[in-house]
Amino acid sequence: MHKNLPFTSPPLIAAIGQYGILQEYKCGQTIIEPGQYIKMIPIILEGTVKVMRRGEDGDLFLYFIKRGDTCAVSLTCCSNARQSEVLAIAEEKATILGIPLEKHEAWTDEFAQWKEYVASTYQKRFQELLGVIDDIAFKKMDERLLKYLVVKSNQLNTLELQVTHQEIAKELGSSREVISRLLKQLEKRKLVELGRNIIYIRNGIEEFL
């Protein structure tokens, strides 16, 4: 287990091994729901988790968390005893280590590396959220779609994305018709190949961002 943790401090690793709770999630299974009180800090050991913000028009994609990562929103909600404002879903089969709230608070004072981990998580997610805001405010939907495909492909380490046009539309705050039209345009540019509920990504597509 410790080989998948982003820590080198033996006392911290030992404490995590003693108090951490292993949890397994299937692909597509909900991990955190809006309105839920979060009592554990999730650290991803295996797999990828998708974090979204639920709104009236659908679930807006925010960011992915993968091996060694945790969710900044979970940290905030735990620390302030607030209900979750995000939806977290396993993008693939995932193994998560849950750190009890009381240990998170104690380790912030006890272990410098845990404190640094929490601080770096906040900084990383803040930058990602700024990127989401910039994308919505300044980028056209075709640019956002291309970036979405690149990020998803990189996070899952695959060039074959099993996702429907409707799912992409919901996560980008668009309509299925718009996404289907833009995907057809990407296919004409030979950046993707469209199948039934699957999108084949061209190797090196990042160059077109």
Automatic annotation (TrEMBL):
SUPFAM superfamilies (UniProt xref): cAMP-binding domain-like (SSF51206), Winged helix' DNA-binding domain (SSF46785)
PANTHER family linked: CRP FAMILY TRANSCRIPTIONAL REGULATORY PROTEIN, REGULATORY PROTEIN YEIL
GO cellular component: cytosol
Residue ranges of every copy of the HTH crp-type domain listed in the record: 139-205
Annotated Cyclic nucleotide-binding domain residues: 25-70
Presence of the UniProt keyword Transcription regulation in the record: yes
Descriptive protein name: Crp/Fnr family transcriptional regulator
InterPro entries noted in UniProt: cNMP-bd_dom, cNMP-bd_dom_sf, Env_Response_Regulators, HTH_CRP, RmlC-like_jellyroll, WH-like_DNA-bd_sf, WH_DNA-bd_sf
Pfam family, one: HTH_Crp_2
GO molecular function: DNA binding; DNA-binding transcription factor activity
Sorted UniProt keywords: DNA-binding, Transcription, Transcription regulation
